[in-house]
Amino acid sequence: MPSIIIIGAGFGGLGMAMELQRNGFHEFTILERATDLGGVWRENTYPGAACDVPSPLYSFSYEPKPDWPQRYSGRADIQAYIHAVARRHGLLDSIVFGAEVTEAQFDDHSGQWTVLTGDGTSRTADILISAVGQLSRPAWPAIPGIDSFEGTSFHSALWDHEVPLAGKRVACIGTGASAIQYIPEIQPQVEHLTLFQRTAAWVLPKFDTDYKPVHHRVLRKIPGMPLAERVSWWLIGETVALGLVEFPGIVRVVSRIAEKHLEEQVPDPELRAKLTPDYPIGCKRGLFSNDYFPALCEPNVDVVTTPISEIVPQGVRTADGTVHAVDVIVYGTGFKGTEFLWPMKIRGRGGRNLADAWADGAHAYLGMTVPEFPNLFLVYGPNTNLGVGSIIYMLESQARYIRSAIQAIAERPGSRLEVKSETERAYNEALQERLALTPWNFCTSWYRNAAGKITNNWPGTTRSYRRRTRKVNLDDFYLTRVD
Length: 483
Ligand code: NAP
Fold this sequence. Notes:
Elements: E1 4-7, H1 11-22, E2 28-31, H2 40-43, H3 75-88, E3 95-96, E4 101-106, E5 113-117, E6 122-125, E7 127-130, E8 152-155, E9 169-173, H4 179-186, E10 192-196, E11 203-204, H5 213-221, H6 225-245, H7 248-265, H8 269-274, E12 287-288, H9 292-296, E13 301-304, E14 308-312, E15 315-318, E16 323-325, E17 328-331, E18 345-347, H10 354-357, E19 376-378, H11 391-411, E20 415-419, H12 421-435, H13 462-468, E21 477-481
Parallel strand pairs: 1-2, 1-7, 2-3, 4-18, 7-19, 8-17, 9-10, 9-17, 10-13, 11-12
Antiparallel strand pairs: 4-5, 5-6, 14-15, 15-16, 20-21
This protein binds NADP nicotinamide-adenine-dinucleotide phosphate (NAP).
NADP nicotinamide-adenine-dinucleotide phosphate binds next to α4.
């Protein structure tokens, strides 16, 4: 049996480990940089942190939870679910916590990966699987003077719960999926909230509900109900995903719902004009909230759309020269989503540096394998993120595919599997042609790198991805023996 190292103990890494274990591969170690599992759900503790994908779908298919307390679960419930699943599958003993991978090197002679962690420990394995996510490193904005601020500031993904916000003047920078969750939570506490909005967000109503005991009973007692509930949510996501690429009419209907939501929730025409997006819906990630717009209508909130010119000791200066004096600045400015696997130094066959191979933007065959990097697999790699839908469905597709590749390696002990460069190139050319048809081209977002290339998203339904990744096709690979 090949030995395997998995990097990351979030949904991706744990899902991979369970897939391996369920298929008889037990020789794996999960290296996790933090002291707990959970990935983004461990890290993002900001007030109101929740998932805007319904829990029946945002969970492992083989680990349904009939008693989710609500449709759109909060962070604490999701984190508890991840813990419970990891415990049930006996994964805790396979995780090494506090082990941040800094380097990994493929040895051409032994055909093994040597993996170094921050404490200087070196481990070897036949197979290396990265499951470090796309949103694990917060992005601070490049605003001049950011270090000169004399008050307190923090990033949404590094929320400082020691800082009391009650009665404070707070600046919030950013209007993404994180910000629209914490702004309604903090607005009632703060003396004044100034929201610095660079780009207005498309916001859809959130059809949330607490699941009543009767709902839990039905799911427990009637066979097939958990699956039926999951499939219903999946079909809704698939329909909208089709709209993003194939049927723009669907997206027009969704735009109309969002426009109506804004009209109903924001009566003031001046504020409504500020909050009206000037780019097509779907370009940035769709957002869901019933309390974001109402919070912005409160008298203690100002929405500032004049660009920020600098951070000064007292607060935020905008391009019109106004200094907005504040006590706290919250940066809801997102993540370094296009810097896949960075800052790990990954060296493949012949010492090939992954950062060099990806100098023009990350790319991989089906988001999982890279030429010249044998026996390396990526979970949630390039172009596997979704505009709509559950990423856990994608992670399960990847786990199955990677497991089937590992089975092929295990059948020929000591062999190395490497994707053919022409296969990977043709795949990515076709992918980019299809991506050119999507709304993701019409604005800036974390889906695109600095050069504008869409490196993060999958242009299709989750079903189409699953069809393509059902099983490894050995014709796409060189499978060679290590001499
Ligand atoms: P984000 O979507 O990348 O949003 C970052 C925000 O910061 C944007 O509004 C951006 O403005 C603004 N910004 C960045 N630099 C700025 C600057 N220099 N000056 C002014 N504004 C600046 O980040 P996020 O809200 O943390 O969300 C990231 C992703 O995490 C989401 O897309 C989603 O995939 C995931 N997430 C999911 C959930 C969930 O419920 N499932 C919840 C939270 C997050 P521009 O738009 O103008 O660039």
